[in-house]
Amino acid sequence: KAGAQIDVAMTSRAQKFVGPMTFQALTRRPVFTDLFSLTEEAEIGHIQLADAADLVIIAPATANTIARLAYGRADDAVTAIALATKAPVLIAPSMNVNMWNHALTQANLRRLVEVAGYNIAGPGEGFLACRWTGPGRLAEPVDIVEAAAHLLSPQDLAGVRVVVTAGPTYEAIDPARFVGNRSSGKMGVALAA
Hints:
Blueprint: E1 8-9, H1 20-27, E2 31-32, H2 38-41, H3 45-52, E3 56-61, H4 63-70, H5 77-84, E4 89-93, H6 97-101, H7 103-114, E5 119-120, E6 124-127, E7 133-137, H8 141-152, E8 170-172, E9 178-180, H9 186-192
Parallel strand pairs: 1-2, 3-4, 4-5
Antiparallel strand pairs: 6-7, 8-9
């Protein structure tokens, strides 16, 4: 909806939840599903997608996918594209709270951030599909889009400290009277964001 051209790659396990036809209908583009497909790989499709990407988003990123990425596995369409791209990679984790909190998952995430420079969006907290409650929930789509927009935008103000004031202003006329406005502060909050 924001005007981006989206190419979708899916693992075989992702296809058990949502069919590729759904994403093909939404994007009006072919969905890359098989690293060894004669039609997709005739042109070395995973390399073409990796080269063409301005940003790679892996959502949802399961504990399994995160572990495979952390150790450079490229045994399916998603991990092969992630390993081959020079574009920024944004991971949106989604898993059971205990899997999220596990020391190996956290170590794998640190490895992806510190060694490969990957970026993380989420996870959210709340009621999970497994009926547990806690962190591990896929970040809201708006939060993933915001993280993607941040990664794609120029970072002209990176490292610059800026003060933004918000709210109404009052200018004294004398000790008893003032001139003011009814500002809600929403503009200042939006600028700070």
